[in-house]
Amino acid sequence: MADCIFCRIASGEIPASIVKRSVDALAFHDLTPQAPTHLIVIPTKHYAAARDARGPEGEAVLGKLFVFATEVATQLGLDAGGYRLVTNPGPDGGQSVFHLHLHLLGGRKLGWPPG
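-> structure tokens emitted (115 positions)
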């Protein structure tokens, strides 16, 4: 989508501090980190939110996205201490960019409940 900032990052039109890229996914540093490690993990194909990735194709996208995120966490050395993967569908869920994405948070003990 031409007006989607995450699509523009995925296409290379907007620069980002990229940690890992594959054909299907991209991980980059969040501009306003909420933890010592805070990355955004997106599918390269546009889906507005998790609810839009239903059916066989969507299940494959979500599965690949989660596996990719765990690979990034391992690459960053977060496995031993742990980390959090979060998605926030819709405005009430806290979504501000309407492109399916995961927040990968780690590097400190994370509290519960969030928000």
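The mean pLDDT is 95.
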